[in-house]
Specification:
Elements (H helix, E strand, L loop, with lengths): L1 H30 L4 H7 L3 E10 L4 E9 L2 H18 L1
Helix pairs in contact: 1-2, 1-3
């Protein structure tokens, strides 16, 4: 049971690190003028798929997931991994 809780904790910390880093990158990118630096903070891979609708006449489902990660999001994941190693040891 303990390993499942720690796996959940690790997943949430990594997700929060990516989310906070990406948010910080978006805010910094808004403050910068157009150019290479702005592209560095704004551009990144978008992983996932577009929404797909399954219509069953009585009801319908819409599924879709897209994860956007920029440079600071990757740095946020790295900081989260470092903090996890420090907290879990």
């Amino acid at each position: 049971m303990r390993s499942k809780r720690s796996l959940w904790f690790i997943t949430m910390v990594l997700f929060l690190g990516a989310m906070l880093g990406t948010l910080l990158g978006q805010v910094i990118g808004l403050l910068l003028p157009d150019g290479v630096a702005k592209q560095f903070f704004f551009l990144g891979p978008k992983i996932g798929f577009d929404p797909v609708t399954l219509d069953l006449l009585l009801f319908s489902f819409t599924f879709g997931v897209k994860i956007k990660l920029n440079a600071l999001g990757a740095i946020g994941i790295g900081v989260a991994v470092y903090l996890l190693r420090w907290v879990l040891n």
